[in-house]
Amino acid sequence: MAPSSVTLNVKMTCQACVKRVTSTLEALPFVSRADVSLEKGTATGTLQGAFPGCDCPKPDGKCPCGDACQCAATAMSKALVDAGYVVTPCGGGKGPCPAVALGTCTCGPNCECGDDCQCALCPGVSVKGKTIEVKVEHALVLAGLAGLALGYALGKRGAK
């Protein structure tokens, strides 16, 4: 028996992202509906079918994964990553996310990713020897924001 829904943490920045994430998930044959929240940074797909999204061989007609089947979640994550989104597998109960304290956790305030942090803006970009990939567009946005802040500060200073 596969799960009836899957919720993923997805890094989104605007309502256009919400529409694209929704359409990407609903294009999958085993997702009947996608509920996407920009505020929470989550996308929940309601699954349909006897073994929704499951690619496991079923020689006896039953999924060998049982209730712990992750095939739908894996397929949904791949579709979103292929569409250009960062999907974080946080929430495994491994301790607080190191990015939460700085307010840069992309998974939300209750993220429990611990040492497996894969947040797009994780501080230090390395946790216990694990390197985390930051997408180029995120780096460009951060560089642009830093430039704006510096320009503002210099402008304020010069105005006095």
From TrEMBL:
Domain of life, per lineage: Eukaryota
Keyword Thylakoid: no
Pfam family, one: HMA
Coiled coil: none
Record's keyword terms, sorted: Metal-binding
HMA domain: residues covered: 3-88
Molecular function GO terms recorded: metal ion binding
Name of the protein this chain belongs to: HMA domain-containing protein
